[in-house]
Amino acid sequence: MRPEKYIKNYINGAFVPAESGEYFDNYNPATGQVYSHIPDSDERDVAKAVEAAKKAFPGWAKMATDKRFRILMRVADIIEQNLEAFARAESIDSGKPMAMSSTVDIPRSQSNFRFFATAIMHFSSESHHIAGEAINFTLRQPLGVVGCISPWNLPLYLFSWKIAPALATGNCVVAKPSELTPMTAFMLGQACAEAGLPPGVLNIVQGLGPKAGQAIVDHDDVKAISFTGGTATGRRILQTTSQTFKKASLELGGKNPNLIFADCDFDQMMVDTIRSSFSNNGQICLCGSRLYIQRPIYDKFKEEFVKRVQFLKVGDPFSSVTDLGALVSKAHMEKVMGYIALAEVEGGTVLCGGKPVDVPGEYEQGYFLRPTVIEGLNNECRTNQEEIFGPVVTIQPFDTEEEAIALANGVKYGLASTVWTQDISRANRVAEQLQAGIVWVNCWMLRDLRTPFGGVKESGMGREGGLEALRFFTEPKNVCIKY
Ligand code: TXE
User: Fold this and answer.
1) Is 183 helix (H, G, I), strand (E, B) or coil?
2) Which residues are annotated as catalytic?
3) What pairs with residue 382 in β-bridges?
4) Ligand 1 atom 34: the closest Cα is on which residue?
């Protein structure tokens, strides 16, 4: 698998330029330099991709399950054999440390293919017997051509999280990665071709969201959209899909709370809170960005947390000692800096960070920011209400359990929450009342791919993961036979 300077679309098993013949620039965020070019696709490329997918669908849907299983397992094996190349490409494209792309992003992308390849071998449907009269059974059939649209923060990880279950269930796919991180999706096309995936089963259209992405959502023959990205984009996609009754699964933004009670295991909590705040530069929809600490340990927490955050190393994504690489783009860096300035206007105190980092040499034009901790803000201010999606957290004290729950639930989002306590009854009481799709108790980002994954309120609609994904990508049809 190899990156190329001029990235191509992958349509009907071939690597082709966009119909427009145009490309736009792809930046390496650690150097601030253009290093490759992305096809500027539009509705013509999407139409070709959908045609190829429609043609491939009958053969793929009817293929024996164990044959589909073998092909998807081969895709996983090829990603694994090329881990180094994929991880390097992911880090160049996104700015994240190679230490992360090689241990999290790419291994998880392989797992996604393996998990759903094996899951389909065990997937079964239900039957309902009317005693002495009839039997109902449920067919679970693939939808046809489906669209998968993913963001830039965990590029191949989230792209494959959608594509693998869609393919495993017998659908053909038209997929678009983020225009900020196109390279590993391009390389996935190479892996699929090598694995023997029949032409047209997976088509990867590169390009801009409002142009290529919207064309996938708009296309009449695309039966479902699985989307991860910003809430505003999700709202827009839903407006379109609601007109045509397309199925939609939307995994959107978050503004996740960490509730840290005085009785927690302080040392473990500290290690995991650093991770949940600053992994991938805070650019994970599951990162906790509002830290609520019970008053008896607030000062101790603040001192230790700030001390450790100041030790985090920001810089060269390819150095083994780097904790935080570059932010994904100049525009995103400016957005995050804008929120830090806003926090100060809103009365917050920056306890550490808040400034860009100068990394000398080839990285001096890169988008590096110090991890930032802010205190002194109320829950209603924009800094505590809006998703920043960067290496920025706020800390606030609380007194009672009820107050902590009210603070945690006091935003329009509801994706993930983290609770730190040694009191099992409290953990259960709090988990029950948190408005979130995922609650972690005494851990963070411990993922079991069988569990439902998604958010409530403006964090999304529908669930991914395990059986939920297999159900989303199939249409249940009840057959009733009287005897
Ligand atoms: O997301 P977009 P962006 C949040 C985070 C971030 C914000 C914006 O707050 O700052 O979203 O990020 C495609 N029709 N998250 O700008 O624009 C687009 O090309 C169809 C949360 O990257 O939503 C890309 O492939 N597709 C998050 C994908 O949608 C469209 C992860 C996501 O882009 C489209 C990333 C359209 N009209 C950002 N417009 C999470 N929850 O994990 C854009 N796209």
Assistant:
1) helix
2) 251, 285
3) none
4) 209
Quick one: average pLDDT of 213-226? 98
Answer yes or no: CATH 3.40.50.10540 is held by domain 9-252+459-482: no
Residue type, 154: L
- Ligand 1: which atom is nearest the Cα of residue 179? 19
pLDDT above 90 as % of the chain: 100
DSSP 259: E
Q: Which atom of ligand 1 is nearest to the CA of 178?
A: 25
Residue 151 CA, ligand 1 centroid: distance in Å = 5
Atom 6 in ligand 1: residue holding the nearest Cα: 230
Contact 196, 159 (CB under 8 A): no
> 460: CA distance to ligand 1 center in Å?
13
Residue whose Cα lies nearest atom 19 of ligand 1: it is 209
Is the whole model's pTM more than 0.90, yes or no? yes
Residue 1's pLDDT is what?
A: 85
Quick one: which atom of ligand 1 is closest to the CA of 230?
A: 11
Question: How far is residue 302 from each of residues 84, 266, 362, 384, 397, measured CA to CA in Å?
Answer: 38, 12, 35, 18, 10
> Is 12 a residue whose pLDDT tops 90?
yes
Instruction: Name which CATH class applies to 256-448.
Output: alpha beta
Residues 236-295: tens digit of each pLDDT = 999 999 999 999 999 999 999 999 999 999 999 999 999 999 999 999 999 999 999 999
Q: How far is the CA of 232 from the centre of ligand 1 (A)?
A: 8
Q: Where in the chain is the domain with CATH 3.40.605.10?
A: 9-252+459-482
d(C-alpha 56, C-alpha 65), whole Å = 16
**Mean pLDDT value across residues 113-138:** 97
Domain with CATH 3.40.309.10 in the chain: 256-448
